[in-house]
Amino acid sequence: MLEQAINSDQTEIYKQMTELGLQEAADMVSSLGQVNLVIKAVSVNYQDHQKVINILDDSVTELVAIGQSLEGDIEGQALFLMHEEACRSMIRELLNERALLRELTEMEEEALTEIGNIILNSCLSNYLQLFKGKVVSQLPTISKWHIKQLLSVFFEKNKRNVVMMVEISLESKYHQYSGYLLFNELPWHHNHG
Amino acid sequence: MMEETLRQLDIVLKDGSVFDAINSGLIVLNHNGEIAVWNKWMVQHSHKSNEEVLGHKLHHVFSGISKRLLQATQDALSRNLSSIISAKLHRTELPLFRTQQDANLNNRIHQSITVTPLKFQHKHWCMLQVRDLTQGSMHEMSLKQTTLELETMASRAREQESQLQTILNNTLDAIVILNRLGRISGFYQSAQHMFGYSEYEVLGKPLSILFPAPFNRRFDLLIAHNSDAQSLNFMEQAKSLKSCGDIFYSDVAINTIFEGEDIQYIVTIKDITERQLAQEALYHEKEQAQVTLSSIADGVITTDIIGQINFLNPAALKLTGYQHNELIDQRLDRVITIQSDRSQLPVFECISSGKQVDSISGDILIDKNGQQIVIHQVASPIHNQVGDIIGAVMIFRDVSKSHRLASRLSWQASHDELTQLVNRREFERQLDQIIIQSRSDGSEHCLCFMDLDKFKVVNDTCGHVAGDELLRQLADIFRMQIRGADTLARLGGDEFAIILNKCGLGPAVNVAEEIRAAIEDFRFGWGGQSFQIGVSIGLVLIDPNSPDLEQVFKAADSACYAAKEAGRNRVHIFSQDDKEISQRQGEAQWMVRIQSALDQDRFELNYQPIVPLEQNKGEPVHYEILLRMLSEEGESIPPGAFIPSAERYQLMSKIDAWVIEHLFKWMDEYWDFNSQDVFAINLSGQSLADDNLLYRVKQLLDHHAVPADRICFEITETSAISNLSQAQIFIDELKQIGCRFALDDFGSGLSSFAYLKSLAVDYLKIDGAFVKDMAEDPIDRAMVESIHNIGNVLELKTIAEFVEDDLILEALKEVGVDYAQGYGIARPQALPTDGSNLLSVSD
Question: Which is deepest, B269, B418, B517, B525, by most CB within 10 Å?
């Protein structure tokens, strides 16, 4: 159970795995678009529900969430979160297109889904090296949520009190975007829970 | 059950028809990454058959597969991680084509690929599903293009809107937008500024709040009546109303603008206050100009550039005698006749030259009735704002009277009014011309200078009227003696002159003699009396060697003077060697010396006692004041040397004034005012005629507080008679304040004793010529007695001059003369300035 006390060694391993995964993801994303992107972990923490709300700032309208479910020996969910405005700016910067439409098109959403998928898969791939069970991740999905709604579902789904929250920064030459990764179940912990 | 299901599923899978039914690409990779399933869609769109691909790895089938796809398949096979490869980021990952033609052109299908792990036969397989998103991609591209175009249009619209806003907010005219109902929906900055309302204060309100009655109702009704939304195009002048209550003039335009079904009104309000004020000012100016033009006495006519009359004032109509409709729109030169020395009328001349033309000479206007009017006309061009000539204005006035006056004045300027002869100025001008002519053509002419003899006798005896009549008659006599080519002039007073044109000296002498004889024979009758007048004539030849005008004139004058000095009634011809003329010239030099002496106070007052004789013992002594002039070297010059010149050049009045002024000063400083002595001052005839001197004497008497009865003025009999009326005034005025008068040199003149009655003198000074020989000459003694007796009769005291010795003194005592003066009594002495007393001489 994630809410069980996680010691500092484990945390440190996850941090390193996360940073490695993010670096791999940045390389992959940069190779796709016309923009060089640097993705870094700003912080890796375990947060409860309220703290996550505070960090994500519920004054902002909506979040875009790219989520992947884990099934099998681990039942959990990984989320890549960004504020909607940041999503639009980033994806259009990566696509080198003018940001005219207020809404993301379907294909832009798909592209954003792939970005989240790359980041999550990179991190999960590193986490899964430590896991000996059978886990399958579903195809990523994209959705828009108000923060509170999203988190109530996220926390409720697996009856979690604490999640691992990674604050990431995605930096292009001219912009810096903030994003978050949320994991409500992780392979290590299950393995050693 | 489950086994059966799985077995059937296995069969189905082996059959592959299920995969072919899927309308998207399906690739299944086995645990080694080899293609296990390649569905029909893939065959169709890759142009690769199953035989070509099955059992091969994907990157062997398609070279150039991206790192992303390889990673995704790897993640699925080794980690069971699903991936999505979006069409947006990869667009045409795999070389798949819709048609062969597309394949030829390498137009790949836009595709998205999902990679999902599969568990098959206990092994990790993965499945790739390829979807054709070409349509979607194109749709998105189209959408974005449209969006871009819309955005560009919107941007342009925003820009235009911004520009429009800028224009609307910065125009000087107020712009107000009304909605369909006539309510204000837009109130731009210019309107805010003009009316003093903020936008907030007027939005939703009717237009009428911006106008006072009756305009407010007018505009509201105008819009209300436009309920059927017709196009409105309205413009009017109105008064507008500011928020502070001020009213101003404005031009108001209301137009409609249609936006689809909706209608709006755009109201433009232009503040025309300045224009209105300018128009009013212009109107006033125009009216003022009209009134001025109507009331001035000068005629004013304006024409256009071809001389067609477009304006006349009443004075012009009056002068020309025409009616307005007879002249307006007519060419000036075709309706009005003006005779002039100019080749064309000033109006046309000024239009062609662009300059003002002043017709100085007297042009003659022929009015409608044929009457000739001398006019002075000035024409000026009229310009428009850019400086082009558009016409001319002619101003003219009737100068007939002034023309006649000018002619008359011109005549008067050159003629003597009394005798109608040429005057001095004109004579000198003509003489100058003659001198120049003589030099140029060698001709000879003569100048006669004529001075009447005894003219003053008539003037003084019979009065000025008689004197004027005499001059007129003499002028007629002169006229009869000359030819038409000669010039006869009255130079002034009793002086005349003649230029004998082209006349040598010999014939000139004859003419002069004839004139002299004619005058000699002439008798002037007036008041029952008959007078004989004479004339002294000086003659000068004018030839190429003659000097200038001044010298010629001097020569003639000198010759005339010489004639006078020689006994009058004669002709004297000027000669350079002439002694009399030399004397005259010497006198001219004295004039300069006397003036200089006056300026430098180089005169000295002397005195000679006039003592009372026996029967007048106790009477105060008289002292005659005598004048000496001092040269620049300080030498004393007797009066006989300078007095004649002083008389000749009209300086006696100044000399007499000097004597009086300096005597009074001396008296003020040195004399005992308690003394009864009397000072006798000589006055010349010129002084008698000088009103300034009379005034000056009174002033000096008052200033120095000299008792008037201590002063006795001596005037010669001759000068008194020559200036009788002035002498009378002079004597009467000073007698009134107490001065005394003595008639000097009495008995030497040829005048009648009757004059004595009209002169209020106190003393008779017997001419010394009779006194000096009376001891030996009984006739002289008889003269002295006679004069003394006349004095007695007239209650005048007698004074004998030139008493040189005791014998004469005794004789005078015997006769009973009252006073004696002479070297035998006392010689003249300078007035003392050392405080010593004057000579006190006893009998």
Answer: B269
